[in-house]
Amino acid sequence: MRWIGTSFKMTKTIAESAAYAARLRDAIGPRLPAGVRPFVIPPATAIETVARTLGADSPVLVGAQNAHWADGGAWTGEISMPQAADAGARIVELGHSERRAHFAETDATVRLKVAAALRHGLIPLVCVGEDAGTFAAGGSADHVVAQARAALDGLADTGSVLLAYEPVWAIGDAGRPAEPAEIAAPVAALRDAVGDRVAGVLYGGSVAPDNAAALLGVPGVDGLFVGRAAWRVSGLLALLDIAGER
Ligand code: PGA
Questions:
Q1: Mean pLDDT per segment of 10 residues, for the chain of length 246 residues?
Q2: How far apart are the CA of 206 and the centre of ligand 1, in A?
Q3: Of 33, 84, 154, 209, which residue has the fewest beta carbons closer than 10 angstroms?
Q4: Is residue 239 within 8 Å of 212, Cβ to Cβ?
Q5: pLDDT for residue 37
Q6: 171: Cβ below 6 Å to ligand 1?
């Protein structure tokens, strides 16, 4: 299975998300390549709309960009796993580097959230990745393996978990797209360390149609987690086609 998905991050209104979902729904039926599993992670405000627009039997999984580890209670500003699932999410993104950098997400809170997601039948999509300094010092593989181990530590039945290797230096407008050779060792290390405990290892960070085939060709990469290049439906469709050709 090749997983190809996008997080909208903090972009798109409900109407824009609905329009995206409707275009994707209409385009995808006839053209979804076999063995490719798309997912879309809108802002929390639009999860319900996107899930409803795609329809219950859509091959596209809908996700949440974050959710809390507690099932409910006095956690102002948060949404719980049951609430995310109630809105239509089937995946929950956890530990993205933007959340680790700006919202005090730690390996410990990521692990609590992985446990909560599994408890509620959501697929945890756990992001790991090293910063530029760690990359330059040759520490990428050790860093991401430690993050992945911490996320899974002590948890049983993690077989639905998806890992996304996302080097911080490769993400976003300020990022530099990674060369396939640069991601090979961290991906191989993740597979060696935890590959038998997860459903797959995705790659993310400045993925675009011009580098997607090469990144998917790195041994051990089971899919792509995409930001900017899939914020238009045409971008996601192009990436689905590329994944289908491999
Ligand atoms: P990008 O974002 O594709 O826009 O670099 C990737 C991510 O943050 O997952």
A1: 97 98 92 93 98 97 98 98 98 98 98 98 98 98 98 97 98 97 98 98 98 98 98 97 91
A2: 5
A3: 154
A4: yes
A5: 97
A6: yes
The whole-number pLDDT of residue 167 equals 98
Q: CA-to-CA distance for 233 and 236, rounded, in angstroms?
A: 5
Selecting among 96, 105, 120, 143, the annotated active-site residue is 96
DSSP string, 40-97: EE--GGGHHHHHHHH-TT-SSEEEES--BSSSSSS-TT--BHHHHHHHT-SEEEE--H
97 closest CA partner among 84, 78, 113, 110: 110
35: left (phi over 0), alpha (psi -120 to 50) or beta: left
Please tell me the predicted confidence (pLDDT) of residue 137. Answer: 98
pLDDT at 30: 73
* Domain extent for 13: 2-245
Residue 225 Cβ contacting ligand 1 at under 6 Å: yes
Report the domain count for the chain. Answer: 1
Q: What is the DSSP letter of 120?
A: T
- CATH, residue 11: 3.20.20.70
CA of 215 from ligand 1 middle (Å) equals 14
Determine the pLDDT at residue 215: 98
On the 0-12 / 13-18 / 19+ scale of CB atoms within 10 A, 104 is: exposed
